[in-house]
Amino acid sequence: MKYQLIDMDTELVLAKGLCERIGIDGRLQHKPLVGGKEEYEISLALPTHLEAISAVIDALMSPVHGVIKDASEIQAVGHRVVHGGERFSGSVLIGDEVMKALEDNIPLAPLHNPANITGINACTEVMGPDVPQVGVFDTAFHQTMQPAAFTYAIPYEYYEKYKIRRYGFHGISHMYVSDRAAAMLGKPIEELKLISCHMGNGSSVCAIDHGKSVDTSMGFTPISGLLMGTRCGDIDVGIIEFLMNVENLTIEELLQILNQKSGVFGVSGVSSDFRDLAKASKAGNQRAQLALDVFNYQVSKRIGSYVVAMNGVDAIIFTAGIGENSPYVRSEICKSLTCLGFELDEEKNNVYGKEVDVSTENSKNRILIIPTNEELVIARETLSLTRGK
């Protein structure tokens, strides 16, 4: 459970941290960012999210490490909710009706939505029912996709009965970086065609036409699209039946393989971390290099298809852990894009985690690096919906 405390008068992050190993043994990492106080890490019992939320409040109010005097200074809470289904096309104040909708969407996100619900209930119990809470959905940004983009070619009754369709994820990140791209280019987002490449342990590409998502690589679940750290991405579905038969696997066992043992980790046999792959490749590991090559090829191909989907493009955006911090990956992807009017300045590209245009002066279209900030989007949405409450 990640958290940030933000003063929205200035959008200054006062503290941030992470509760991990909830339900196992428990650990809290807390970093105050004002007042000259030191960060710390502590092991403590966190059997549920209730204890984790309580530990966060205690850390924020700690005389030694805290940044507020009283929990009443927290005026609202925003939650990143992975799956809103078709029900939510924007952020919402959380109440009984919204909670029922989140429960109804559990079959669409069985790993994520129950944790989101638990976190919301824990905040209500610790802070009380009078502190407003907001749900910001990772799927909402993509609700502008047209049926031709989100419909799967299976019997239509499955869409009607079970809402099986492309939903897309990373929407909060894609929304933030597209807004920042418009600011960098000095143009209204309504005049731009952008392709956002969110590349991390989970990766997706999104086509954003005049500020609206028109297509994205992830689908019904986050496993589809590009190969990722440990996820396979798009594969021939016939492989599933074949492997279940020849390896005598259950569907649960195979899904674990496709979600946790595939991707660049599965191809390389080395790691799901692109930094490890780069080191192994330099040392001569051919499978590590193959994993990088497959990833770069898939991203390049997806970018090309989205230029066609939008009938043009003004800029591509690289964001998230790999997109922001791998000059090599950006360079290799852009080598295939010169035919589309992209020309990378290799010297400018030698940068990590900064907001910068790395195109050459002669590049027809722009290549932008924009560090994502999903927490700020959540905070802004929360402020907008709770102002005056």
Q: Describe it for me?
A:
The protein starts with a strand and ends with a helix. The protein has 15 helices and 13 strands. The protein is α+β, with helices and mostly antiparallel strands and 389 residues long. Helix 10 (274-282) packs across helix 11. It folds into three domains: 2-73, no CATH class; 77-167, 2-Layer Sandwich (Nucleotidyltransferase, domain 5), CATH 3.30.420.40; 188-374, Nucleotidyltransferase, domain 5 (2-Layer Sandwich), CATH 3.30.420. The mean pLDDT is 93. It has helices at residues 49-61, 96-104, 113-127, 147-150, 156-162, 171-185, 238-246, 251-260, 263-268, 274-282, 286-310, 320-325, 327-335, 346-349, 374-386, and strands spanning 2-7, 12-20, 27-32, 40-43, 77-81, 92-93, 133-137, 193-199, 203-209, 212-216, 315-319, 356-357, 366-369. The chain is globular and about 55 Å long. The strands form three sheets. A six-stranded mixed sheet has the order 10-9-8-11-13-12, sandwiched between helices. A four-stranded antiparallel sheet has the order 1-2-3-4. Strands 5-7-6 form a three-stranded mixed sheet.
Short description:
By secondary structure, the chain is of the alpha+beta class.
Output the keywords.
389 residues, alpha+beta, Nucleotidyltransferase, domain 5, 3 domains, 6-stranded mixed β-sheet, 4-stranded antiparallel β-sheet, 13 strands, 40% helix, globular
For the record, the CATH architecture of the largest domain stands as 2-Layer Sandwich
Q: What is the percentage of strand-forming residues?
A: 15-25%
The biggest sheet amounts to: 6 strands, mixed
In total, the number of strands is 13
List low-pLDDT spans.
none
What name goes with the CATH superfamily of the largest domain?
ATPase, nucleotide binding domain
Helical fraction equals: 25-40%
Strand order of the largest sheet: 10-9-8-11-13-12
Mean pLDDT: 93
Number of domains: 3
Distance between the termini: 26 Å
At the first level of CATH, what is the class of the largest domain? Alpha Beta
Shape: globular
Structure annotation, total helices:
15
Which structural class matches the secondary elements? alpha+beta
